[in-house]
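batch job 7 of whatever, protein = GIY-YIG domain-containing protein
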Amino acid sequence: MRFEAERVALLDPERLWSAGEVLGRPGPVPRAAGVYGWRFTSAPHEGLPVGKLLYVGIAPRRMATRTSRQNLRSRVRYHFRGNAEGSTLRLTLGCLLGLELRRVGSGRRLTFTVRGEAELSAWMAEHAKVSWVEHPQPWLLESELIANLDLPLNLDQNKRNTFYAKLRAMRAAARERARELPIST
């Protein structure tokens, strides 16, 4: 593997950080580019391991025509307190935990509503732990990690994972159900 030091740092981090620590001021997460990894002290779904690296994400995200302006600090903090529309991790966890996805606002955005997002934030505050590693081109490291590790909560670039089909179906069913329901206020 090309990024051995970074892989080791995410698989066996010196420290795992909780929501309270990450969301505190000034907070430990750097305003830098890199990859973050998530573990949970309670399995978000039957059959998923506890305490093992289950998901990696990056900041900034590289898109076809530009690179996002996000950094590790903004992205990790958003995962802890944002909503499912802006966080693939939150969308995945909410679906796995059985929260109801709904259309909100104009009807184009999908979230777990204020109540569901608060429930998800509380679950994450109790069970989610995160670590990170700085890297100037995190998309390269992310691709390498997904190709070589068992990361069941990542869908992008991860069709070979045994949990892929189940997770993809759960998320699709949640989206389909949300489109059938009236817009939530």
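notes: Strands lie at 34-40, 55-59, 102-104, 109-111, 128-134.
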